[in-house]
Task: structure prediction
Amino acid sequence: MENIFSFDVFLINVPIYLAFVLAGYMLAIKPKMEKKSRAISLSEELYDTKEDLKIEKVEDFEIYLKLAKLFRKSGEFEKSVQIHKKLLENESLSKSLESRIILELGRDYLASGLFDKAEENLLMALKLTDKNSQGEKDCLLAISELYERQVDWIKAVVYRKKLIQIDDSYKNGLALLLCNLASKEYKNKNIGNAKKSYLEALDLDKDCVLAVKELATIFLIEKNYQEVFNILNSYVKQSTRLLNLMVFAFKELLENDEFKKDTAKLLESLTTEDSCACDYEVCILYCQYLLKESKTEELQEFISKYNETHKHNLQAIYTMALFLKDSKFDYKSKDHSNVLLEKIDSMLQGEYNYQCRSCGYHTKHEFWHCPQCQKWDTLGRISR
Result:
């Protein structure tokens, strides 16, 4: 049989190989190069650095708006501003188009950090837009983002509230803004205002664990354990999202004689219900409670159920192994602490996750600025 990998066969098939390469070029590379060439040509036609904009040659405003957006994305804010200003010189502009251009001009200034000019143009655009329109939503969102960048949480909250009156899908974002406002009020010793903002955030977003966490912290400082218990009890009925961030509050209540029994019942309901996918940190806390109360049989049964429930969660099993090792509890199973540790150590070698200490945001990558709560230097590495 002839060797298909021989040099002679290769020479015979060279034209076929070249045809495939040429076809690939025509189908993939050439269209992209032509598109880039057209874009450069259009940019040179519409904007000449030596002369003014040749805007009178084109009547399609969409082309200019898209070009200006490209300039803004590439950091060429001056070019984007000049295009928008030139568009506004056209006397035949409709009201809706004028408001749209002014909005884009405000975004130019916002992106470049000129907040005063951004505020002036965004507020002007808001006045020109029709009520309950997409344009009004865009304006309100841009104004809210402007005040967020200026750390003016009060004004940001005001305009975000106007936005959710049109579209309530933005209410989770408003909840985070209220948390930021509450944090500022708390630093300024306005405790009442801080509590009010946190509670308002919870009304908007039952999953806002940041509000629950901070409220519990405030009440613990005030030694108002009843309010701490009420917050935990209310939160777990609504949501168990990121419940691991509330372990500190459960610990405090378990050490309080008055609330120890009720807190234990709450933990038991969270950790034993099959329908509740409770965070394993809370389960380990319940194990520590059972061990401290010398409830050996209950602890044996709970650990077996825990290992079965979390058998596919490496971090959960690893945490249980650490608990067994540290507590020296005589767990009657072949999967004792040393076996679990050896098994999982090799599987978790070199794997890390990151979690925000403020809001609990989880990510596989390290950031200095939390994407969720917008706080700096709060993401810490979790290695289990």
Notes: The chain has a mean pLDDT of 80. DSSP finds 18 helices and three strands in the chain.
